[in-house]
Amino acid sequence: MDLNEYQERAHKTAIYRDRIRALGNAAEHAGDNSYLMMLLDLSYVSLGLAGEAGEFANKVKKLIRDTGAITMQDRLRLIDELGDALWYISDAARILGVDLEIVAGSNLTKLANRAESGTIKGSGDER
After folding, report:
1. Measuring CA to CA, which residue among 111, 104, 105, 60 is closest to residue 81?
2. For the chain, which domains are there?
3. DSSP string for 64-125
C-alpha cells in the first residue's frame, strides 16, 4: 500500500466531522464558513496528533524508567501509537488538500537540501 492509498482508506474512519459541522453551523455568523471549517478540522487533528505524540513519548519514558530492554510487546505498543499519529498526519494533509505522498516527498527533498548545505544541525525552518 502506498501513502495515498493509506490516506484515502484512513479518512473513511474519520468520525469527528459531524461534530465539527455542528460547531461550524453554530458559528455561521463568523464569516467564511469554509475557512472556519478548515480551522476546526485542523484544530481537531492537531490536538489528536499532539495527544498521540504524547502517548508515544510517555511509553518511551516508561521504558527508560522501568525496564532494561524493549520487548516485542513494547515495540508493538509503540508501533500502534505511531500508526495513530500517522492517522492524524494523514487527515491533516487531506484537510490541506495535499496527498500524503507529496508531504513525504517534500520532506525528503527538504532534508536532502539541508544535508547538501550542511544545515541538518541547527534550528529554524529556513535553513
Report:
1. 60
2. 3-99 (1.10.287)
3. HHH-SS--HHHHHHHHHHHHHHHHHHHHHHHHTT--HHHHHHHHHHHHHHHHHHT-SSS--S
| Three-class DSSP category at 43 | helix
> Is residue 39 within 8 Å of residue 23, measured between CB atoms?
no
The rounded distance, in Å, linking the Cα atoms of 105 and 87 is: 18
- CA 10, distance to chain mean position in Å, is 12
Nearest to 41 by CA among 54, 60, 22: 22
Alpha carbons 60 and 1: distance in angstroms, whole number:
28
| Cell digits of residue 32 | 467564511
Identify the CA nearest to 34 among candidates 47, 25, 43, 46.
25
pLDDT band at 30 (very low <50, low <70, confident <90, very high): low
> Does the pLDDT of residue 34 top 80, yes or no?
no
Flag whether pLDDT at 57 surpasses 80. yes
